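Deadline looming. Please check this record:
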Amino acid sequence: MQNLIGETITAKSGNTFILTEIAGSGAQGVVYKEKSEKYILKFYYPHNEPQLDNDIIDKLSFIKNVKKPKNFVEIRDLIDYPYKGYVMDRVIDHKPINSYLIYDRTKNFADWYNLGYGFRERLYIGYIIAKAFYALSVDNLSYCDISGNNILVKYINNSCYA
């Protein structure tokens, strides 16, 4: 997939987005920030088989329209050209759960641990995550892209939320 920075992308709704920088990438595709800073756009790597690429849009359309627990970020719009993907709200002031699982070796361990990375915070985050996945299972749904970068945590007034 070529670098799309500076490109204007039109979603299925007709809304346009100017891509400003790569926010991340993984095994499935590339995630971009856009000019208004309100949204993130994810593009899947092409399969080079039209049916597989079209299946992505079908699956995303289902996900967009299905009821999800409150802790899950909604798909706002779909993109089917020139790549397959979607638009979602940009999540601000959250950190990936990896930052709670992997010790930052540039900091003193005690300082890192006492800045909200301790056992109590981790236990609470685990509870919130389990509750969200339980809510999915009640509706016979599952989540298939679990990673330490896809679960985001936010601190508000010394309390964490996943």
Notes: DSSP finds four helices and nine strands in the chain. Residues 8-89 form a domain with the Phosphorylase Kinase; domain 1 fold (CATH 3.30.200.20). The helical segments are 50-65, 98-101, 109-117, 119-138.
